[in-house]
Design brief:
Layout lengths: L15 H5 L5 E5 L5 E5 L9 H5 L27 H4 L7 H9 L5 E9 L2 E7 L2 H7 L12 H10 L3 E6 L1 H10 L2 H4 L2 E5 L5
Parallel strand pairs: 3-5, 5-6
Antiparallel strand pairs: 1-2, 3-4
């Protein structure tokens, strides 16, 4: 198959396929519980296969450079700054890293934030944006075009700290080339899905 019409329940809603489609043949629709999945208009689709290539769920196992090693490390953290962890749901580790990250110029942070009664990923390089990203949401965050925004920033040599669920991080890794990947620090959070 040359498109992702069969992805259905395996879809994580990253929207990479819709953004990469040069003929706009893919629309994201809501499935059960509001999760997104791609619907392919086969009359418009030119069967180029780009959507399958960029989809982390449609691909077979990643090459060794993207695989997680057998040895993994996990950390539990609590921010020393009480004003940070009191406004955070998981100890304030993300906020502490994000506030520290933007102290240097040309640095951006991307994470989930409440916006118009929904959760979506945003990109910011100031403390007010990071404060919007604090607190747990426990719902799927819409990534929209943020993954490609992060890619553009990295291609311009700007550093980005990206925080997301494992599938969002995998989706970001699918679109970054080797040079861009050097400018992105990814924080993979625990997913409750």
């Amino acid at each position: 198959m040359d498109n992702i019409a069969d992805i259905k329940e395996a879809c994580t809603g990253c929207e990479n396929c819709a953004h990469i489609c040069s003929v706009n043949a893919i629309n994201m629709r809501k499935k059960n519980h509001g999760f997104l999945y791609p619907v392919v208009n086969v009359e418009v689709c030119v069967a180029c296969g780009k959507c399958r290539l960029i989809c982390p769920q449609a691909r077979e196992k990643e090459t060794t450079e993207h695989r997680i090693s057998a040895e993994q490390t996990a950390y539990i953290a609590l921010a020393k700054d009480q004003s940070i962890w009191k406004k955070s749901a998981s100890g304030g580790a993300f906020a502490t890293m994000a506030f520290s990250w933007i102290k240097e110029s040309n640095r951006y942070v991307s994470g989930a934030a409440w916006s118009n009664r929904r959760v979506e990923h945003i990109v910011s390089n100031d403390s007010s944006g990071i404060r919007k990203m604090q607190n747990s949401k426990y719902v799927q965050s819409l990534t929209g075009d943020v993954l490609f925004h992060v890619k553009r920033l990295a291609s311009e040599g700007k550093w980005v700290l990206f925080s997301g669920t494992p599938c969002q991080c995998a989706s970001l890794c699918r679109i970054l080339n080797e040079k861009e990947r050097k400018y992105v620090l990814i924080i993979d959070i625990v997913c409750h899905a």
